[in-house]
Fold this protein.
Amino acid sequence: MAFSRRKMFYSAVLLLCIIFFAGACSITEFLIDTQIDKTQNYGHIKEKINAVIEKQAESDKSNQP
């Protein structure tokens, strides 16, 4: 079964669309993964906030009669 030029053109366009979509999905997944890594790197800030909260709680306990 021979393909006509029109079918070959549409097949090529469809193949390019599939490749583009797969590339866009992989780039999006990469960006999401790097954003997750960035949020995990800020754990030291969370530890500092927790330390301040604990310090405030201790000072509140000592101020009670």
Summary: The first helix runs from residue 5 to 41.
